[in-house]
Amino acid sequence: MKYYPLFIVLSLVTACLFGQNTTEKNRVIETVTKDQIKSHIYFLSDDLLKGRETGTPENKIAAAYLANALRGYGVQPNPATGTYYQEVPLTKTEAPTDMAFAIGKEKYTKFVAFSGEPINFGGPVIYAGYGMEADYKNLDVNKKFVVVKAGSASAQDAQAAYRLRAQKKEWALANGATGIIEFVETNAQIWDYIDHNFNGGSVRLASEEKNKEGDTFHHFWIYDPDGSGINTLKNEKETKFQASVRRELPKDIVSYNVVGVIPGTDPELKKEYIIYSAHYDHVGIGTPDETGDTIYNGARDNAVGTTTVLSMAQNLAKHPTKRSALFILFTGEEKGLLGSEYYVDHPVLPLEQMVFCFNSDNGGYNDTSLATIIGLNRTTATNAIKNSVAQFGLKAIDDPAPEQGLFDRSDNVHFAKKGIPAPTFSMGFNAFNGDVTKYYHRPGDEADSMDFDYLESFFRAYVLSGRTIANEPTTPFWSEGDTYEAAGKQLYGN
Ligand SMILES: [Zn+2]
User: What's the CA-to-centroid distance between 211 and ligand 1, angstroms?
Assistant: First the structure.
């Protein structure tokens, strides 16, 4: 009998905790519904939006849709602009056209022209070994092109060639040369990769593009699979080359991050913000698949992530948490994490008030019993996330494919580098294979092929996780010994 009071106390505590949990869970179920989720994903991945490539009109339509959703929920706009947008200035370089290259009697169709300038040029070339500093001794290359072997005497592979590219340009310039033609001895697979990377068009942050105009130095890479090209040239005295590359000058374009805020309810904790983020751009139109489809709809990548943020915003507009919320939907992720890079250098609120970045990015899923959180165990929010995910019948696991380097390959990494704990919440996958690779960056990544019963649990799990972290008395931080712990201590001054 003497245990009676304790029993009462315990049941009261249990009842309270249980009550609180069910209330929180019900708040999530109230706003996160299958129909609501479908409406976002079907619109964002519609063929009409042509794969939401950064800088296209359809990418802007997606941004307008997101801004309008936030507006409709009653989310406050970007405090820095009074709109729901943050302008991201970009520079777009088109792929070159009409490329032709001949040297001596040999015509080359596989080459890269690195310079931004159009060229129609010919003239004598001079062989200069590997084009290292010592190779210019006793050579007069003034106002001429040098032809060299890629890499160095100790390493001729493509990586070595790439590492030496800038230095070789410096040496050539120092000796008065007009340009370099490098012969790269490599296999077809690596050459395809080089071709795709350097001959395709590109989009970069405007601030990064330093050589936009006035760079008249020309730098070529020529595919020389067996090294025979350069070997013939080595012994020829008077060789001439002719090259023409037509390329438009880089253009300034603008794309947008979409930004909104919901203030917290606790007088102290509201000074701390949780960022809820995801990229909304995708890769646009590209190579057709076996069905002839050319539109890369990006339903999983990343209409799903975008919808986690919208679901959070809708929920918090109705039931705000103690901590404040900052929603950011990034552009330019597929071009090299550009929107998030721009954001951390131009934050709309002080970064040191951002105590957590709960990002969502998705390649695909192959296990509907899971939510896969890249960096689950790297912050002190592990249990908050695990328990919330479990409430909807799913299991939270950490990165099952560390070899893919996913933590450092999405927008969260820019926040992590600044010191902000920043895991990425993704649909369940237990390995980077099967249904993940089947849809990852493929035209078949469409809404119709997704399991919306699973998605309803997935989105609810994300929203409850966010709410739990935003209401907990202790501020989340990096796990002890994490790569980014020191950056975190510096940011928050502790
Ligand atoms: Zn993505």
Answer: 29
CA 361 to centroid of ligand 1, rounded, Å: 5
State how many domains the chain has.
2
**Considering the entire predicted model, what is its pTM?**
0.83
Q: How far is the CA of 404 from the centre of ligand 1 (A)?
A: 14
**CA-wise closest residue to 311 among 469, 85, 466:** 466
- 199-202, long-range: CB < 8 A, 24+ apart: 199/95, 199/96, 199/99, 199/112, 199/113, 200/95, 201/92, 201/93, 201/94, 201/95, 202/92, 202/93, 202/335
- pLDDT tens, position by position, for the chain (494 residues)? 445 555 555 555 555 555 667 899 999 999 999 999 999 999 999 999 999 999 999 999 999 999 999 999 999 999 999 999 999 999 998 888 878 889 888 899 899 988 656 778 888 899 999 999 999 998 999 988 999 999 999 988 888 898 899 899 999 999 999 899 999 999 998 998 888 778 878 899 997 654 444 567 888 999 999 998 998 888 877 788 888 888 788 899 999 999 999 999 999 999 999 999 999 999 999 889 999 999 999 999 999 999 999 999 999 999 999 999 999 999 999 999 999 999 999 999 999 999 999 999 999 999 999 999 999 999 999 999 999 999 999 999 999 988 878 899 899 999 999 999 999 999 999 988 889 989 999 999 999 999 999 999 999 999 999 999 999 999 999 999 999 999 999 999 97
Domain with 128, as residue range(s), is 97-247
Ligand 1 centroid – CA 466 distance (Å): 20
Distance 445 CA to ligand 1 centre (A): 12
Expressed in angstroms and rounded, the spacing between residue 338 Cα and the centre of ligand 1 is 12
Distance between Cα 487 and ligand 1 center (Å): 25
How remote is the CA of residue 301 from the centroid of ligand 1, in Å?
A: 5
40 CA from centroid of ligand 1 (Å) = 16
Distance 96 CA to ligand 1 centre (A): 27
Task: List, as ranges, residues with CB under 5 A of the ion ligand 1.
Answer: 301-302, 361
Ligand 1 center to 398 CA (angstroms): 17
**What DSSP element (H or E) covers 97?**
strand 97-103
Do 380 and 393 share a domain, yes or no? Answer: yes
| CA-to-CA dists, residue 265 to 50, 199, 271, 322, 358, angstroms | 40, 52, 10, 5, 19
Give 429 Cα–ligand 1 centroid separation in angstroms: 15
Same domain, 216 and 175: yes
Closest CA to 96 of 70, 82, 79, 117: 117
Q: Which of 192, 224, 247 is the last residue of a domain?
A: 247
Task: Report the separation in Å between the CA atom of 440 and the middle of ligand 1, taken as the mean of its atom positions.
Answer: 9
